[in-house]
C-alpha cells in the first residue's frame, strides 16, 4: 500500500466516524418518534405554543439582527480605524460566552436592578418574564454569528465596484443596495442560517434572563426541558425535539437555497 | 440612444484641473486641461501618480488642495469648500480591469448608469452595446466574456451614462497583445467621435501617441513635459523623457509580401517593412535608438531593410545623445550620438536617409 492510499483510508475512516457520531443522535430521535408521536406532540397545547413562540421570537430577533447588523457589518468591514481589531474581537466574545453567563450578564445589564434597568423601564419596557426579554436574549447570542459572516462577506467585496457605481450616478445608498448587497448575498445568507440556528436552539440565556413561562417565554428548547423534567415526559420531549430538528433543518435549507449557497446546492443536486 | 443624445450642457467645455495631494513617497502636483476632440494622455511609469490623478478628477480621491472644473461647472474647489460627490460629477470612468458588476448581465451593467426611466433603459443599453458590436452578448455575465469584450462593455457602460468627461485608466493593459491591436483602433474611433473632454492614463508611450492628441509625461507626481507625441519624441526635455518617450508611430497601408514580411506604404510617402503580420490600415512604431542616419547615396549594409528618405526638422541634445526630428513627411525621431550629428553636419533642412531593421518595426495598431 503506498503512502497516498494509506492517507486516503485514514481520512475516509475519520470521515465515517465523524458522520456516524453526528448522525447517531438524530437517528435515535427519529427512531423513537414515529408519525403518531409527532402528531401527538403537535396536538399538545403547550408544545404548539412553545413552537410558535420559538418561531415568532427568532423571526423578530433575526429581523433586528439583519436590519441593524447589515449596515454595521458593512461599515466595520470597509473602514479602517484605530482599535478596529479590538472591536472585531469584542463582537466575537458572545460566541464563546457560555449561555448561562450571557443570561447573567443580560440580567446585570437590563434586569430590574441592572446597570441600564432604569433606562429600560423608563422606556416602558418589561423584559424579565416577558416575550420581549426572549427576543433580547436571542439577539444577544445570535448577532455575533451574523456579524462575523457579514463582515467577512463585505470585506471580500471589490471596492472598485462601488466606485464604479458612484461614477455611474448612484448615490451611496443605491450603490450599497445594488452592488454591495448582491455581492455579499451568499455570505449574508449563511450568516442568517447560522444566527437563526443558534437562536432556535437558545436555552441558557433565555432561561436565566426571561424565565420559562408557558406561552410567554417558554420557547421550544425550554419546553423540551420542562417535558423532560416531568415523570414519564421523555417521549413527549423526544417528539418535540424531532419537530424542532425538522423546523431547524427546513429553515437552514430554505435560507441557504434563497442565498444561492453553492455548498448546499451540491448536496440537493441542483 | 434616444433623441438629442450627445450634446449635453457644457459638452463643448474643457476639463481643467489643478490639484495637489501627498502620495506614498512624493507629492502629486498636477495641472491639466483637456478639450473635447483632443484626448489628453497622462503618460508615465508605474507609480507616477497617474491613477491617483484620474481618481481625483472622478471624485474618488480627495486632494489636499485644488480645483477641478468642467467648463463653468465647478466639481472641486478646496478654497471654497466645494467637493461634488462622484455621482454628481457626470464623469465616465473606465477602470483598469473594467470593474464590471459580476452579478449583472452585460446589458444591466450598461443600463446601470443610464439617466432614463427604468423601462427605457434596456433598449438604450442594447443600442449602446450594438454601437460597440457586442449586442449579442447582452445577456452574458462579465465572467464569461473575453478581455476584449469586457473592455467594450465597460466603454459602453461609461458612455451610456452620458458623461460630461470620459476618463480611461490603462484601457488596454488588461488585453493580450493580439486583442490590443484591434482594440486600439476601435478606441481611436470612439475617442475621435466623442464631443466630451477625455483623459486617459497609460504607461505606454505608443498607446499615448496613438490615442491622444496631447500628452503629458508624468514622473513622480509632476508633469515633466507636455506636447504632441512627435514633438516630445523629437525634443525630450530630459534624459528621463528621452528614455521613456521613445517610439515614433507611423501610419500606413499594410500588405503581405512573399517571404512573410509585411510591406507598409506610409501615408504621405515612403514605405517600410515589418516582421509582424498585418493587412489594411495600420500603425507601426519604431524606437529612436533603432534608427541610424546616413547621407543620401551613401553605401549601406544589407541588414537594414528599411531605408526612408526625409528632411531633418529639429535637433535636440539630451546628455551625450542627440534626438533628430525627421519629416518623411510623417514625423520620425532618430537618436544618434552627439559626435555623429556633428560629423554629418546635421541641421534643419538637411536631407538624410533613416535606416532600421524590419525586426525593429512593430505593428501596434490596425486590424
Can you tell me about this structure?
The complex is a heterodimer of chains A (270) and B (367). Chain A is an all-alpha fold and 270 residues long. Chain A is built from 13 helices and no strands. In chain A, helix 4 (84-96) crosses helix 7 (131-155). Chain A is globular and about 65 Å long. Chain B has 367 residues and is of the alpha+beta class. In chain B, 23% of the residues lie in helices and 34% in strands. Chain B has helices at residues 50-58, 106-111, 118-131, 147-160, 177-193, 205-211, 229-234, 239-244, 338-343; strands at residues 15-22, 27-34, 40-43, 65-70, 73-77, 82-83, 91-94, 165-169, 198-202, 214-219, 222-227, 248-256, 262-266, 271-274, 280-286, 292-294, 306-318, 321-327, 331-337, 351-356, 362-366. Chain B has a six-stranded mixed sheet with strand order 7-8-9-3-10-11, sandwiched between helices. A five-stranded antiparallel sheet of chain B has the order 2-1-4-5-6, covered by helices on one side. In chain B, strand 4 (65-70) and strand 5 (73-77) form a beta hairpin. The longest helix of chain B has 17 residues, at 177-193. Residues 1-11 of chain B have low confidence and may be disordered. Chain A binds chain B through residues 158, 160-161, 163-171, 178-179, 182-183, and chain B through 58-60, 85-87, 89-93, 95, 97, 99-103, 112-113, 115, 157-158, 161.
Essential attributes:
heterodimer, A: 270 residues, 13 helices, disordered C terminus, B: 367 residues, alpha+beta, six-stranded mixed β-sheet, five-stranded antiparallel β-sheet, 23% helix
Quick description:
Chain A has 270 residues and is an all-alpha fold. Helix content of chain A is 80%, strand content 0%.
Amino acid at each position: 500500500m503506498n503512502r497516498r492510499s494509506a492517507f486516503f483510508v485514514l481520512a475516509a475512516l475519520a470521515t465515517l466516524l465523524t458522520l456516524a457520531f453526528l448522525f447517531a443522535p438524530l437517528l435515535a430521535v427519529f427512531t423513537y418518534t414515529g408519525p403518531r408521536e409527532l402528531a401527538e406532540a403537535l396536538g399538545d397545547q403547550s408544545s404548539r405554543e412553545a413552537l410558535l413562540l420559538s418561531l415568532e421570537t427568532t423571526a423578530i430577533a433575526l429581523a433586528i439582527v439583519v436590519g441593524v447588523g447589515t449596515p454595521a457589518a458593512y461599515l466595520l468591514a470597509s473602514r479602517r480605524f484605530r482599535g478596529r481589531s479590538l472591536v472585531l474581537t469584542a463582537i466575537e466574545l458572545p460566541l464563546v460566552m457560555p449561555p448561562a453567563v450571557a443570561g447573567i450578564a443580560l440580567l446585570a445589564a437590563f434586569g430590574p436592578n441592572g446597570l441600564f434597568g432604569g433606562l429600560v423601564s423608563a422606556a416602558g419596557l418589561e423584559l424579565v418574564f416577558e416575550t420581549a426579554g426572549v427576543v433580547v436574549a436571542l439577539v444577544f447570542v445570535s448577532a455575533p454569528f451574523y456579524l462575523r459572516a457579514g463582515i467577512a462577506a463585505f470585506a471580500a467585496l471589490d471596492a472598485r465596484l462601488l466606485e464604479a457605481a458612484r461614477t455611474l450616478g448612484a448615490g451611496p445608498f443605491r450603490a450599497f443596495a445594488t452592488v454591495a448587497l448582491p455581492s455579499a448575498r451568499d455570505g449574508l445568507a449563511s450568516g442568517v442560517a447560522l444566527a437563526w440556528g443558534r437562536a432556535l436552539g437558545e436555552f441558557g440565556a433565555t432561561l436565566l434572563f426571561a424565565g420559562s413561562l408557558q406561552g410567554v417565554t417558554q420557547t421550544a428548547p425550554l419546553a423540551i426541558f420542562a417535558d423532560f423534567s416531568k415523570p414519564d415526559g421523555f417521549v413527549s420531549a423526544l417528539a418535540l425535539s424531532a419537530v424542532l430538528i425538522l423546523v431547524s433543518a427546513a429553515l437552514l435549507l430554505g435560507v441557504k437555497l434563497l442565498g444561492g449557497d453553492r455548498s448546499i446546492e451540491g448536496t440537493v443536486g441542483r | 440612444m434616444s433623441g438629442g443624445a450627445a450634446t449635453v450642457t457644457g459638452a463643448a467645455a474643457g476639463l481643467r484641473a489643478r490639484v495637489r495631494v501627498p502620495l506614498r513617497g512624493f507629492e502629486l502636483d498636477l495641472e491639466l486641461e483637456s478639450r473635447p476632440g483632443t484626448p489628453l494622455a497622462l503618460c508615465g511609469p508605474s507609480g507616477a501618480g497617474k491613477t491617483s490623478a484620474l481618481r481625483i478628477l472622478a471624485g474618488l480621491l480627495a486632494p489636499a488642495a485644488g480645483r477641478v472644473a468642467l467648463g463653468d461647472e465647478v466639481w472641486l474647489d478646496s478654497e471654497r469648500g466645494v467637493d461634488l460627490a462622484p455621482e454628481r460629477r457626470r464623469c465616465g470612468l473606465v477602470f483598469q480591469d473594467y470593474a464590471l458588476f459580476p452579478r449583472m448581465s452585460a446589458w444591466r451593467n450598461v443600463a446601470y448608469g443610464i439617466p432614463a426611466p427604468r423601462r427605457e433603459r434596456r433598449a438604450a443599453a442594447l443600442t449602446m452595446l450594438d454601437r460597440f458590436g457586442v449586442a449579442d452578448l447582452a445577456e452574458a455575465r462579465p465572467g464569461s466574456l473575453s478581455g476584449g469584450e469586457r473592455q467594450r462593455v465597460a466603454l459602453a457602460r461609461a458612455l451610456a451614462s452620458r458623461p460630461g468627461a470620459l476618463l480611461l485608466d490603462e484601457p488596454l493593459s488588461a488585453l493580450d497583445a493580439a486583442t490590443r491591436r484591434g482594440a486600439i483602433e476601435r478606441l481611436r474611433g470612439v475617442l475621435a467621435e466623442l464631443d466630451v473632454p477625455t483623459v486617459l492614463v497609460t504607461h505606454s508611450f505608443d498607446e499615448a501617441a496613438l490615442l491622444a492628441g496631447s500628452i503629458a509625461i508624468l514622473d513622480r507626481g509632476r508633469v515633466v513635459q507636455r506636447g504632441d507625441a512627435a514633438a516630445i519624441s523629437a525634443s525630450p526635455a530630459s534624459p528621463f523623457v528621452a528614455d521613456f518617450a521613445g517610439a515614433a508611430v507611423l501610419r500606413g497601408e499594410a500588405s503581405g509580401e512573399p517571404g512573410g514580411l509585411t510591406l507598409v506604404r506610409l501615408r504621405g510617402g515612403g514605405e517600410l517593412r515589418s516582421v509582424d503580420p498585418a493587412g489594411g490600415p495600420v500603425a507601426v512604431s519604431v524606437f529612436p535608438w533603432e534608427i541610424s542616419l546616413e547621407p543620401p547615396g551613401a553605401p549601406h549594409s544589407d541588414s537594414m531593410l528599411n531605408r526612408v528618405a526625409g528632411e531633418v526638422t529639429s535637433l535636440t541634445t539630451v546628455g551625450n545623445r542627440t534626438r533628430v526630428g525627421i519629416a518623411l513627411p510623417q514625423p520620425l525621431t532618430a537618436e544618434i550620438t552627439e559626435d555623429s550629428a556633428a560629423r554629418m553636419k546635421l541641421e534643419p533642412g538637411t536631407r538624410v536617409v533613416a535606416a532600421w531593421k524590419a525586426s525593429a518595426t512593430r505593428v501596434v495598431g490596425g486590424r
